[in-house]
Amino acid sequence: MLTAGERGRGLAAGAASFATVAVFILAPSIALVSASPAMPGRAIFDSYTLSLLRFTVLQAVLSTLLSVGLAIPVVLALGRRPAFPGRIWILRLMAVPMGLPVLIGALGLIGIFGRQGLLNRMLALLGLEQPIGIYGLGGILLAHVFFNLPLACRLMLAGLERLPTETWRLSASLGMGSWSTFRFIEAPALTRTLPGAAGLIFMLCATSFTLVLVLGGGPAATTLEVAIYQALRFDFDPPRAVALSLLQIALTACVLIAISRLPAADVTGGGEGRAPQRFDGKGLGSRVWDGLAILLATVFLILPLSAIVTAGLKADLWRLLTMPSFRQAAVTSLAIALAAGTLAILVASGIVLARAAIVDRRKPARFQALFSGVLAGLSSLVLLVPPVVLGTGWFLLVRPYTDVARVAPALIVAINMLMALPFVVRILEPAYQTHARCTDRLAASLGISGAARWRLVDWPVLRRPLLMALSFAMALSLGDLGAVALFGSQDLTTLPWLVYSRMGSYRTNDADGLALILGVVCLALTALGTAGAADNNRRSDIATGDQDREDGR
Fold this sequence. Notes:
Blueprint lengths: L3 H32 L11 H34 L6 H7 L2 H4 L2 H12 L4 H8 L11 H25 L3 H9 L4 H29 L3 H6 L8 H10 L4 H23 L23 H31 L2 H5 L2 H37 L5 H13 L2 H4 L2 H12 L5 H43 L3 H29 L3 H6 L7 H10 L3 H23 L2 H20 L1
Helix pairs in contact: 1-15, 1-18, 2-7, 2-9, 2-13, 5-7, 5-13, 7-9, 9-12, 11-12, 12-18, 13-23, 15-16, 15-19, 15-20, 18-19, 19-20, 19-24, 20-23, 22-23
């Protein structure tokens, strides 16, 4: 139970968070809409624009089908093999692409599948001189599968692992074969998670920017977001950028509406729980098939990561670390990441506290219930208005009044904060709800509130989730290329932009070394955030169970 003062402060924090997000998203959106009537009378939605829309949807559909389709045999194999040497490390390997900056993953894929990559060198040894190209639609699909196949595996594997052991015992006692087990047990479990996973992956692919920018290979393989960037950065054609931004918003709105009608993907499972004991798949053929599926998926993930490390170690890392341009980019990146992460924590905390204050009232007013629902969907607004579109709106909004370069750092911080907000809310809200359920009554009975409660009760427990959220937000900001691609300059360079500029000037050795440094920093932040998470979850489960027993009495 919260005191009246705590509820009031929670609602005030929620109102401040709502105002912050609303200003950062609605202001550029209004600027885009208001700029549209001023566009010249030429046909903005010409054949080229429609081809951009078709390609954006096509590559997202194909990427989703490939990622989910290739993940299914891997999920079934991992589900049938709940205990084998190295299983936990394979599952952890699948988490690496999700914490790796997209630009770094693209470099690793180029090192394997590029013209001078490992695959083409092996083909040359066999006398095949026709190289395999990674640029174009094929490269985009390959990169999307690299990043999204592990995500699909972890989401769907979590659905299989939630099935009780009794299910598998019953299937074994009934003598169910592989096809019957798949038809009556595995397929229904996958069906519950597959639509949500596919919808999430489609959304990620439809709003993909960095991969298409690096691997697109020309106008024939360009999405709406990349075309917006090109219209502002190279052509300086604001009317076309506005038209494409509005088209991108319409596309993402349609996708979000479709996803909202699908079963939600449970991203909290992750496929690293205790797998139930299985009694099927004992035959030699099943073992060979499962081993082959797991091996191919593991090799597909390891090769680009190994290419990043191998190529990076060949560079003169000490020279790169001591370059003035690296030091300037590193300081800028860390400052932006820390500011964006801190702001994301503050905004997310306001959302969480306000929703908790409304839930604490047994009969909240209709307005408060509506406000709670608005706050619940507030963090997802960034999915409706992607970062490149936000940057376009802010560019149009700021340009008439001041030099955009002067406010570029603040804009990049705001955009990175909005990108991290959904993840931060997802980390903080469950942790706070569990903690509040265990401590609210005791704190109220002891008369502990305000700063004393935060210092004595809340901070010791919520410190780890807060640090986890901050580390994830900082890692996401450090690896972002989208915002700085619009606003970056010689005076405002981040580590991803430095890597990309070295690639563009064909200084691949420097780009590989910088990519390795950036990847290690981002993965270290991600690992730091998840350190001790399992122990913390066990303590939360024990505390929740104790509180449930108290409530039962």
